[in-house]
Amino acid sequence: MDNRYVVPERQYLVNLSTDVLSITTDNAPNMVSGKEYLQADHTINSIIHMRCSAHILNLAVKYGLDCKEISQSISKIRYVNVSSKLEADLTAHQNACKEKELSVSLDIEIRWNSTFDMKDTAMKIFDSISKDLNDEKPEEIYS
């Protein structure tokens, strides 16, 4: 087994049962298994396993973003970013209107606030984006 995934030898775990009161992890199965391994193999029976509330909140937000209306809105914003023509049109429109040149960064699943940041930037440059999307109604793009 790869040494990165092995719990240290017993000599390093002396008095672990009195030193560790709780473990906070995400909800990944390997973390749950690791905690169970420590309890089973090293007689740490009173250890408390706390599920990370930030991970739980992030999962709830991700679930909420899966609804049809929101996911369509996010898809349209992503489309502006990956379309070379729309990106060029957006830059040209911002320059013509003497607006600050902003672009929408794509969200990244492992960066928790990135979808919010992407939508926030899109709202700041809504006029430019809506022009590039043939003046579609705001509720069709962002609702």
From TrEMBL:
Entry-linked InterPro entries: RNaseH-like_sf, ZnF_BED_domain_contain
Domain of life: Eukaryota
Tagged with keyword Zinc: yes
Localization per Swiss-Prot or TrEMBL: Nucleus
Keywords attached to this entry: Metal-binding, Nucleus, Zinc, Zinc-finger
GO molecular function, one term: zinc ion binding
Main location: nucleus
GO CC entries: nucleus
PANTHER family: ZINC FINGER BED DOMAIN-CONTAINING PROTEIN 39, ZINC FINGER BED DOMAIN-CONTAINING PROTEIN 4
Protein name as catalogued: AC transposase
Species of origin: Brachionus plicatilis
